[in-house]
Amino acid sequence: MHFIDQARIAVKAGRGGDGIVAFRREKYVPAGGPSGGDGGRGGDVLLVADANLQTLLDFKYRRIFEAVDGRRGGPNRCTGASGDALRIKVPCGTEVRDARTGILLGDLTRPGEELLVAAAGRGGLGNAHYLSNRNRAPEKCTEGKEGEEWLLQLELKLLAEVGIIGLPNAGKSTLISVLSAARPKIADYPFTTLVPNLGVVRRPSGDGTVFADIPGLIAGAAQGAGLGHDFLRHIERTRLLVHLVDAASEAVLSDLQVVERELAAYGHGLERRPRLVVLNKIELLDPAELELLRAEVEGHCGRSVLAVSAATGSHLDSLLAAVWRELDIGAPRETEEPVMGEA
Ligand SMILES: Nc1ncnc2c1ncn2[C@@H]1O[C@H](COP(=O)(O)OP(=O)(O)OP(=O)(O)O)[C@@H](O)[C@H]1O
Ligand SMILES: [Mg+2]
Question: 162-329: which CATH topology?
């Protein structure tokens, strides 16, 4: 299953009901005046941010949304019923664009936030409206207006709080698979991961935090090399980056720098995002070797560096403790709910 974070839907607001031509017919009233009522307004189409939705997956199965039409007017100046608005639920964090022009129509971030995406047609006028001194029996009425119709592009930036980044093969997918219920593909060749994998990791307090395993970054990713650019986009909204480095690599420091340079080149504040530097695959090194390496990397980064093994599970508890600490130091949690998906 692919994690879908883009969808295209067609929305159509309701047509206004027609106005009608009618005349009063009553006993002893020889020439009852015009009494045709107006048509009702159609239903609008709105998008509503819903904290319980995590993906745009539902839109894979349903792509056309039409609000109901207004009803036609009735005799005795009765206005037709208006159509109910159609509210389409989307996950928090959904960006809405006009699919034809790409123009941004809105960004639904807070739960309950609404965006009008197709305005309903007005109802037509009944002949009661056209009564005048010159024309006591107008036969004229107007039709309801069509509702607006739009093709929308929905885009959900994954609202992961923690992004796991690193070179291909660093063990990012292995890490998310041991921390969460996500079961991404893991293999010893680069670019195993093609779309971000999300996993929810339970905090000591009980609620979940979404981690995203991002496809490997390589030099030039910010310019679009490898799978880079698309996926850097996904970590724009994370609050913390876990930079995973293969400790058994020949050139740990330059591996680190490649990724750091890509973050800086991409911009959007990623280079200033709080970051944990984590050495992985430490079971492949002997303890003395590891301590030397760790000291060297700490010297380079100017802060303490964690050392774990995603494969054997060693020191993952200290990694999580560091993650919770960093997240709690940062800005207070937004009301946004975590996202879960799977590649
Ligand atoms: N602690 C570890 N010790 C030894 N091998 C490991 C460890 N962690 C991961 N590996 C191995 O490293 C290889 C790459 O792992 P994984 O697929 O998780 O990397 P990745 O960073 O997600 O790569 P990609 O960017 O290509 O998706 C796998 O063969 C995995 O078994
Ligand atoms: Mg991977």
Answer: Rossmann fold (3.40.50)
